């Protein structure tokens, strides 16, 4: 997305989630009849979210020519669990989706550690160049973090209201992820790869 405007990437990434939040807040106390079936605000929001995510994912693929494995996995799980929630008119399946996603990511990262494969670095090394030890530490921390997020999602959706879960999903989870990434700033610095000197600097020396 090098040649696109700076706002395009965050709009594509967060647009479907904001749409989900907006539709839910608009219809949270109402029901709407579709094809003879009454749907509450949560299901209506899910019904808006799925095509929006498909569209933004397709746009990202069109712009960049590629999709990260996590994007593909997320899209598939959203379609499956979101579709089940709509089909059965039951919000629980869609609420379970983040738990499945986070546990899947944790298993993938844990498997990479066990096999001594730097799968996280293969995806992020261009944006965050670090040595092998740095990637090992970050992979372990991120795997544990995803397990914690899965547990937090289970706690919220099983014990609290739909509104609380929607706020947690829309704002709480992104804030936790941002805090995690920020909290590892020292790791990034300690294991950053040295910046190669330019040819002009070499000649000056």
Features:
two-stranded antiparallel sheet; 2 domains; single chain; mainly alpha
Structure description:
The protein is mainly alpha-helical and 205 residues long. It has 2 domains: 68 residues, no CATH class; 104 residues, no CATH class. Helices cover 76% and strands 4% of the residues. It has a two-stranded antiparallel sheet. The longest helix is centred in the last third of the chain and has 28 residues. The two termini are 37 Å apart. The mean pLDDT is 89.
Q: Strands, helices and their partners?
A:
Blueprint: H1 8-27, E1 31-34, E2 37-40, H2 41-64, H3 69-88, H4 92-114, H5 119-124, H6 132-159, H7 162-183, H8 185-190, H9 199-204
Distance between the termini: 37 Å
Number of domain units: 2
Helix content: over 70%
Question: If helices are DSSP runs of H or I spanning 4 or more residues, what is the number of helices?
Answer: 9
Strand arrangement in the largest pleated sheet: 1-2
Mean pLDDT reading: 89
How many strand elements?
2
Summarize the biggest pleated sheet: 2 strands, antiparallel
Structural class: mainly alpha
Tell me the β content.
under 5%
User: What best-fitting shape do the alpha-carbon axes yield?
Assistant: globular
Family: Belongs to the YciB family.
InterPro entries: YciB (IPR006008)
Organism: Paracoccus hibiscisoli
Keywords: Cell inner membrane, Cell membrane, Membrane, Transmembrane, Transmembrane helix
Short description:
The chain has 205 residues and is mostly helical. Helix content is 76%, strand content 4%. This is Inner membrane-spanning protein YciB.
